[in-house]
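User: Can you help me understand a structure? I only have the sequence.
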Amino acid sequence: MTPLQRYIAEEIAADHADGLLNRREALRRLGLLGFGIPAAASLLAACASQHNDQPLTSQPPSAPTTSAPPGSSAAVATTPITFAGPDNRQLQAAWAAAAQPRGGVLVIHENKGLTDHIRSVTGRFAGAGYSALAVDLLSEKGGTAAFTDPAEATAELSKIPQDQFVADLRAGLDELGRRVPDKKLGTTGFCFGGGLVWLLLASGPSALAAATPFYGPFPDNGDLSASKAAVLAIYGALDTRVDATRPAAEAALGRSGVPHDMWAAPDADHAFFNDTGPRYAPAAATEAWRRVLDWYGTYLG
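Assistant: Let's start by predicting it. Here is the structure, written out as tokens:
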């Protein structure tokens, strides 16, 4: 099991422990990942035990909010595109062009694929002056739209080799560079996509000048020495599972010598930026968006 596969499985177990998935649905989703009933039940029990042992600092899921998500008022509509990827594969993506681009941002989606929420974030970056591209990492499976069950999309993502993710994201950077020539490039990813930001940074030299991973697990033995990207890593203070990888990320960034900062949103949990999810925290999301745009304003232009 790869670290990203383990992460997806633990996320399902954590959602069950937090009451966001009932036991039957959690077992079904773990089954789609290849877990047998005994192994799945054992993972749920272990996660529930860890959850019960934690101090009672976590908050209940956020109530629906009527406030507009940060950056949405100026968002640009996205356009579906395709472009050539590795091994002659066609990659699908959402593209949003800024009127006068200051730079470009590669947006990396969560483990549900290229959803309307990720398209919205892509459009928000364009509205803020950064042309943005979100690659559908399920392109070779027909794209995210081919899956009516989000859990099946997640299961298919878990089967894709990490090297393929990196290759497809590098192709996305190449495409973004063609669309915003002579501009600096950054990348923002969320949850699973945040983990892919770290993998991309650890994969060797690239065109990236900046990166802002949101609550992404840092890869085992991740080496950032070849990266030149300035990194702002964002966490939720209540997200103890992903926060446990933060010291390794901080140590790797320190060794790399690149400009970096870390911010943990107080009273916010995993996936707090996703305004379509149960853990959405509007105040934390607004502050995170401000910090990301400030970071890109400094390191992208």
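Now, to help you interpret it: The first helix runs from residue 3 to 17. Residues 3-52 form one domain. Let me know which part you'd like to focus on.
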